[in-house]
Amino acid sequence: MNTARLVADLAAELDEGGLRGSFLVRDLHSGREVGLEPDLVFPLASLIKVPLAAVTLDRIRRGELSGSDVLEVRPGRDAAPGGTGTTRFRHPAWVALDDLLSLALAISDNLAADTLFTLTPPVEVTRALRHWGLRGITARHLVDDLTRTPEERFEPDRAHLAHSLAIGAATAGRGHHIPQLDVTRANSGSARAFADLLQALWTPSAIPDEVARRVRELMAANLIRHRLAPDFTSDSASWSSKTGTVLNLRHEAGVVEHADGRAFAVVALTESRIPAVRQPEAEGLMARVARFLHDHLRW
Question: How much is the pTM?
Fold first, then answer.
């Protein structure tokens, strides 16, 4: 099947399943790529933790911070259901900077990430990305803001109403009445922009080698593996990634490394128009689309 026909068929399949997405798969060695609306900008949700980790690690490399520095983490800022790690703590804790990085990426601990943001605010993360030549990702706010959406104002059995609001409150130009879903106010980026970041982390770039190597290790330790991981993990392939979720947005970005030495960046940013909190069909559909694009490019 030629590329144009494949992309059209996958776009139709997404639409039938109630999704719109920005997808890109890139061969990290040849630079060849295939995508579906890869320049469509989305709020990044927890994907912003990847550049946050990279910039924090670079500050450690330069001696501005130390991985052994111990910071106080105070619970209570993230009361949203489903929180992980320190967000579920009931008492203050003191955690080393290195361990906060691991918590933020491996289990997507929001409070750990925001503790890192107190050291390196969003504007500094964006400035560092620009210094590395990465211009498509913008950090604007703390991760805690993702837990202050209309969903947290409804009882669990009525949370679908927040998704209905999220679906219906979009404005022209990718704006939105919910700030966390407005690309001009949220942490934002496209599939292409995130693939650029992954390429910079997996191949020689302006990002120092020791920084990139540690980010790769942290992404390989990701424990959230229900979205794209089932389609990209096997005995002959490893999958390193980060997920992101807020309201009707479901994302994942990672790199699959095959035993034959080839490596591909895979980025899937999606929004659903189905007003439901749990959508396993959407998770499976986005993985299917990403896998078809990968296989088309690889073979």
Answer: 0.91
